[in-house]
Amino acid sequence: MTKAFLDTALAADIAAGLARVETLFESQLASEFPAVNDLCAHVERYRGKMLRPTLVLVSGLAFSRDGERLPHAHDIIAATVEMIHMATLVHDDVLDEAEIRRRGETVNFLRGNETAVMLGDYLISNAFHLCSRAGDPALNLRLGEVTNTLCEGELVQLSRRHDLALDENTYFEIVRRKTAVLVGASCELGAKLSGASADEVARMRAFGEQLGVAFQIQDDLLDLLGDEATVGKSILRDLEKGKLTLPMIMHIASTKGAERAAALDAIERRDPTALRAALARSGSIQGARARAVSIVEEAKRGLPATRRTHSRELLLELADRVVARDA
Amino acid sequence: MTKAFLDTALAADIAAGLARVETLFESQLASEFPAVNDLCAHVERYRGKMLRPTLVLVSGLAFSRDGERLPHAHDIIAATVEMIHMATLVHDDVLDEAEIRRRGETVNFLRGNETAVMLGDYLISNAFHLCSRAGDPALNLRLGEVTNTLCEGELVQLSRRHDLALDENTYFEIVRRKTAVLVGASCELGAKLSGASADEVARMRAFGEQLGVAFQIQDDLLDLLGDEATVGKSILRDLEKGKLTLPMIMHIASTKGAERAAALDAIERRDPTALRAALARSGSIQGARARAVSIVEEAKRGLPATRRTHSRELLLELADRVVARDA
Q: Best interface-test mutation with B: which of A158, A160, A170, A176 has the largest number of B CBs within 10 A?
């Protein structure tokens, strides 16, 4: 992360914060049972970009004064949102029958679905327990609302699998719920815990939600275009599992007959080259990419002024990275 | 429930409380998405004895004055513990590949494992959100601790599947975690929210945990001896899935050679008659039953004096029912 930071003091604060978050994450999950600790150690290997905890910390620092240290509640919320995210990864891998995650084997592949289901539950439970340690009922209430919404998004997505009539509006409704609300809450709560105004908090939340939507579209594009070794997980998995991604929805909406069928056949045959060609011909890949970029631009325009030096530039840069990433 | 109540006013209070809990349970889960509501309606059919919410209410009334109405927090906690319990049923059915629950088809059987995993998550999330609505961070912290422990119990049990060396001590450690802590917390929090003393709260928790352990042993016996139509779910499922139950652990510890193998072969062949015969010969069925009864007797002896008329008799009667039930 550090290479692009504009301000050494800010970079140091974030690096120190993320180190505290990792320690808190690990100590929260520590069990007296080696069998449980082994599983949690495996999950910690899934940790990648730490996007959500980074957003909590940067959003917190953005509304602090230079040199002011973040209160402990930021670390708690940062570790909590990451733990919620890890729980969704573990359960998503069960749903997707995924074998690979971040270049390593998934828990369900190594240890069976039963263990993966229960490990995900252990992570969810610990996320709520950790959040309760902040002693602020409003935080529990808000994060409970976020995870309710997240699960609704997943359930609606499951209920619409293989449904070629799924339109863009419904797609964005699902994505807002299953991905964007947690990213939005990361920005919102980071700012709120640093004393940002109601308007600033609302704008930080909107910024985070837009980042979350763009992040999901980029995930959709990586599922289609990514190089398996770089992405670190199987590609075309979303489409094979009947999850319609934005390029596919755009393709279905804009084509008919043989052109439309070419993409569906390519999924069936697991032929990424033919699929990419069909979606490029209909302009759907370019369309989805343009949509992600325009959402990021909108997010950046809506970002409120911040108190601390350089933190706004960093948030703008994080926004750009969401659509520039290849993993 | 009412037939055995000794006191009409108490019976009326509990019936009214359970009706409020059901309403709260349903309104908490209500979603704007019909797909989500359909699934929740299915889960509500699993609701059976309402043991945990009943214990919250009776434990609350036990430390209230006659005629005093329970505060809303009791209803919230009663609905929360039931929702946690429902979440464990939905995920347990995935783990057990169960097809039948309370005489109806399971969510995983009807709608697939993916939907059952996500529906369980929706229930867990809503349980924490509902609990947060009480506005008391100590409740969130305590219930988070309870569900952490519960998941640890399940994970340890999974890690010891098919392990014939599992001893009684480990069995009781697992059962305390996966079943007893939630029942214990139901009694503990009910009493605590009514202003019981620290000693009374601790004794109510111990009472509940002992009931929970006895409840699990009775479940083990029903898995072995139950009539499928009465129990409402497949029997021998625990043993087939490699979960050692108390009668089986006692059998393995007290037999060797052909006598020991007879039981293992009977599980393999799905022959309940031969299995029951082997376990009866080794005294393991009688042994497990005696153990459950003695735990209930110990629980009853430790029950503290209560403030409200007749509530203590009702708690004693609920304890007896735990080991008398056939479903």
A: A158
In this structure, what token pair is assigned to residue B55?
């214990």
Whether chain A has a CB inside 8 Å of the CB on B37: the answer is no
Q: State both tokens at A320.
A: 């750009």
3-class secondary-structure state, position B196: coil
Cβ atoms of B208 and B185 closer than 8 Å: yes
Domain count, chain A: 1
- CA dist A314 to A11, A55, A251, Å? 9, 10, 35
User: What confidence category does residue B228 fall into, taking pLDDT thresholds of 50, 70 and 90?
Assistant: confident
Global pTM reads: 0.94
DSSP B90-139: HHHHHHHT--EETTEE-HHHHH-HHHHHHHHHHHHHHHHHHHHTT--HHH
Choose the mutation target among B81, B132, B170 for the interface with A, i.e. most A CBs under 10 Å.
Answer: B132
Q: Are strands B104-105 and A104-105 parallel, antiparallel or unpaired?
A: unpaired
Q: Can you tell me the ipTM of this complex?
A: 0.93
Residue A99 half-sphere exposure, CB side, CA atoms within 13 Å?
3
DSSP letter, residue B253: H
**Locus of tokens 């600790």:** A37
**Could you tell me if A276 and A248 are in contact, meaning their C-beta atoms sit under 8 angstroms apart?**
no
Contacts of B240 in chain A (CB under 8 A): none
Q: Are B157 and B174 in contact (CB under 8 A)?
A: yes
Dist. CA B236–CA B267, nearest whole Å: 8
Mean pLDDT across chain A: 92
**Is residue B49 within 8 Å of residue B102, measured between CB atoms?**
no
Q: Distance between CA A87 and CA A182 in Å, rounded?
A: 13
Residues contacting B10, CB < 8 A, separation 6+? B61, B308, B309, B310, B311, B314
pLDDT at B3 over 70: no
Residue closest to B296 by CA, chosen among B183, B196, B169, B167: B183
How many Å lie between the alpha carbon of B138 and the closest alpha carbon of chain A? Answer: 8
Q: What is the CATH number of the domain that holds A53?
A: 1.10.600.10
Question: B151 to each of A30, B87, B107, B234, B241, how far by Cα in Å?
Answer: 13, 12, 20, 23, 18
Those residues whose C-beta lies under 8 Å from the C-beta of residue B238, and which sit 6 or more positions away, are B96, B220, B223, B245
DSSP three-state, residue A294: helix
Domain with A58, as residue range(s), is 2-324
User: Do the chains contact at B118 and A158, CB–CB below 8 Å?
Assistant: yes
Dihedral angle, C-alpha B309, B313, B319, B320, nearest 10 ° = -160
Confidence of residue A97 (pLDDT cuts 50, 70, 90): confident
Provide the pLDDT confidence category of residue A102 given band limits of 50, 70 and 90.
Answer: low
How many Å apart are CA B120 and CA B75, to the nearest integer?
Answer: 21
Q: B287: Cβ–Cβ under 8 A, 6 or more apart, which residues? A: B247, B250
Closest Cβ–Cβ partner in B119, B148, B155 for A126: B148
Backbone angles phi, psi at A101, to 5 degrees: -145, 125
Kindly state whether A25 is in contact with chain B, defined as any CB-CB distance less than 8 angstroms: no
CA distance B54 to B51: 5
